[in-house]
Design goal:
Strand order of the largest sheet: 3-2-5
Helix content: 40-55%
Number of helices: 10
Number of strands: 8
Mean pLDDT: 79
Structural class: alpha+beta
Order of helices and strands: HHHEEEEEEEHHHHEHHH
Low-confidence stretches: 1-14
Strand content: 15-25%
Shape: rod-shaped
């Protein structure tokens, strides 16, 4: 098996100029001298602090790497340059419809943040690094969604974002692009699935509410049984409970109070009347 090793940029810069290239360069310098000082307007270029300039001379990359920030010099007619913005760029990944691992169709969109860390590779290795990164982000998002369950997509977005960022960073590294951050914005489910999940959640809540109510009834019945045992052991406690109930009722002035008469008093008067009649 034969492995081919890619030539670095330094090897590409080591090519020597040909005869035609020397003649074209010499003619450009003569033209520059003849049109001096007006030619200075086309010779000196400025790039901002956040920009770099990649210069080509007759189609070949000039030695010295990217220029900037500040002012740099080019030779008219033979030199051309390309500006590269080093600031962080963000773009929205269009909503991607994918089939999850458990055969559920979901629609997910995301946002990606990236920047250029190697201007030379961003210009030489890829035709349009911005468009290529966007297309790669859409494909990567669909591939990652296909390996996750619906529950994982809904509950573990950070893991999906991290996996997507790692995959994009590895793929775009030869282009000189550094993917800094990926965030999942929204996960959309079909309407039928949303209704089914809502019904399931409602049924779960109702079942939990019934269990809680049953536990409350059980605890209340035990408390009532203990209270009845205490009242049964002390008859005076029942009278105190009567008085406490009357006190609670008397707090409302617009209520009619019915005083409960103890049965023991009635039995006392009944027995006394019977005794008088017998005498």
């Amino acid at each position: 098996m034969v492995f081919s090793k890619e030539k670095p940029l330094d090897a590409e810069k080591s090519f020597t100029m040909g005869c035609v290239e020397y003649i074209a360069t010499f003619g450009s310098v003569i033209l520059l001298i003849m049109t001096f000082p007006f030619s200075l307007f086309w010779c000196f270029k400025v790039v901002q602090e956040y920009e770099r300039a990649v210069i080509f001379r007759l189609g070949r990359l000039r030695t010295g790497g990217a220029r900037g920030p500040g002012i740099f010099f080019i030779v008219p007619c033979v030199d051309s340059y390309c500006k590269v913005d080093l600031r962080t760029v963000s773009f929205d990944v269009p909503p991607q419809e994918a089939l999850t691992k458990d055969s559920v169709t979901v629609t997910v969109d995301a946002v990606v943040y990236y920047r250029i860390q190697d201007p030379l590779n961003a210009v030489i290795k890829v035709a349009n690094y911005s468009n290529s990164t966007r297309l790669l982000a859409m494909t990567t998002l669909r591939n990652i969604l296909g390996t996750r369950n619906l529950a994982e997509i809904l509950s573990d977005r950070e893991a999906i974002s991290h996996a997507m960022q790692t995959s994009l960073d590895v793929a775009t590294d030869p282009w000189g692009v550094k993917v800094e951050r990926v965030e999942i914005k929204d996960v959309s489910l079909p309407q039928q699935l949303q209704r089914a999940m809502a019904t399931e959640a409602e049924a779960t809540r109702e079942a939990r509410a019934k269990v809680i109510a049953a536990e409350g009834e059980m605890k209340a019945s035990r408390a009532l049984k203990e209270a009845s045992d205490v009242i049964n052991q002390s008859p005076a406690a029942l009278q105190l409970r009567y008085l406490q109930t009357l006190n609670n009722i008397s707090a409302e002035k617009n209520s009619t109070i019915i005083f409960p008469l103890p049965i023991d008093i009635l039995s006392y008067f009944s027995n006394r009347t019977n005794n008088i009649q017998m005498v």
